[in-house]
Each structure stands twice: as C-alpha cells, then as structure tokens.
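User: Run a structure prediction on this.
Assistant: Running it now.
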Amino acid sequence: MVKVYFELDNGKYAELVAIFDDEETYDACLPALEKLCKKHNFDLVTESVDEETTITHYTKK
C-alpha cells in the first residue's frame, strides 16, 4: 500500500490525498498528482510505503 501526501516545503504540514494498492499504479498517477499538488498550493508530493498492508477489494453482488 502506498499513502500519498501533499506537503509544504517547511515540513510543518502534510495532507493525505490518496492511497494506492501498489507502487505501479502510484507511479502511473504521479504526474497528475504533482500537477494537483501545485494547483492546491503545496510544494511536494511524498509517499509512505507499507509492504505488509494491502487494500481489500470488494465486489457488489
């Protein structure tokens, strides 16, 4: 699981903006996340990787 944050340069504030099930999907979305980060007046896109946690997928019946 990859948690994605928008942060300020000074490190005083970070906001969780997305959670991805895998790094491949995160990497594909990174350019759009970087644009959105700047649009909302943040300075950095950062991530936290948790290899032990996965997102459970549910399907409607």
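The longest strand covers residues 14-20.
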